[in-house]
Amino acid sequence: MDLLISLSKQITDQQSLILVCKSLDDIKRFSFTKEETKYLESAIEKEQNSIRLNRYSHQIFVVLTKGDLEKIRLAANVLHREINTLKIEQLTVVDYAKNKTEALAFVEGLALSNYQFLKYFSEKKENTLKGIGLHFDGSADDIQHLQSVVDGTCVARTLVNEPFSYLTAPQYSKDIERLGKEAGFSVEVFHKSKIEALKMGGLLAVNKGSIDPPTFNIMEWKPKGATNKKPIVLVGKGIVYDTGGLSLKPTANSMDMMKCDMGGSAAVVGTMYAIAKAKLNVHVVGLVPATDNRPSGNAYAPGDVITMHDGTSVEVLNTDAEGRLILADALSYAKKYKPEIVIDLATLTGAAARAIGKQGIVAMGNDKETMAALKESGDRVHERLAEFPFWDEYKDDLKSSIADLKNLGGAEAGAITAGKFLEHFTDYPYTHLDIAGPAFMLSPFNYRGRGGTGVGVRLLFDYLKYKSE
Ligand code: BES
Ligand code: ZN
Ligand code: ZN
Description:
6-stranded mixed beta sheet; binds ligand BES; single chain; 13 helices; binds zinc ion; alpha/beta
């Protein structure tokens, strides 16, 4: 099912082509028949931006690109449907517009649209498209980077799409180990005894109701020529299924999509995969605490006081606010790397999803430089950041009458108090990304598709690429 993107040196008009241009003038050199030229002109007069010329043995598409990179990705997504209906297997995109970035965005839109998760169907209706050539003024490196980030995004999508019936925490670790071998990053898995020895009380408390043990996954990509001395650490929420625990999810159907609650960690794994495949010159560590959260006779309970990896005591007032408990242990574990910066990704709060929906990522933190760079990356790849305030006054909502902190804020600003809870466990420049809104789609959302979107991978890849240059 993998889609291969390649640099295309030679083009003939005997194969299916997409001619990307700004106007018909750009493609004058292409050998159209008189009838074809006439047809193209009249279609363009009717303001059609995507025109198909049927040459029977193959197809020629003429695409006029308008607007920003996202408009171009969206146009590619619309065209992808037609390509698949026509059962095209291989096609070459020719950049007559002479705009490298736009050509890459177009191919990215096509490639991401081609993703499917068919594992559980008896009859697999696979998309026909298997390869895209790109004829443009770019390099093999450009293609390699695009292939890597597309593959990393699809890795993240598949991890999210896998149901809990398959993806328990131990299985997740096996998958991460396999992906590490495939892409070339190293993986170390801590199992329950090691997690106990490290006194990761947050991860252990959330795991108490589970029938599967927790895992703590450490990924590392450390190339020889890394531009950074101290590592960049990425932390992802790895709740493989969130029932809410004893504070069982109260809203009808709200549990249906909770296999997506490891979406933050899937973005971290997908990013590690992409940067290792692309061999980016940057030293990155990925940390993923993983467990499910469910009720049982042994489950942790509202009112419990637990002791975290760093010694902080936490009063648990709602077992559905579990993400911050497992992330807190990972964030305090991250201190040992003396990181340059830390970024975490998590499907952390319904509040973040309600605030901005699927259109972007709720971001907050105490690291202005990283926030600014991430915002620029987010605009480029259209995984945009909406920065929320991170004022210390919000910490007041986390005061407990019995312990150092409580895991529940007040009635307001739920996404921010969750972020402030996490910040307590950090001693480095810190950025928190709440992806509860854009991580999972119940119905198809353009090239992001249905189910897991892989949000975060393209953002982090773009950011790390900038850091590596
Ligand atoms: N996993 C959920 C957050 C979530 C909601 C993710 C919707 C994706 C879509 C998280 O663990 C949770 O349940 N948060 C609670 C926190 C509350 C109890 C403080 C929430 O947001 O309601
Ligand atoms: Zn929860
Ligand atoms: Zn959760």
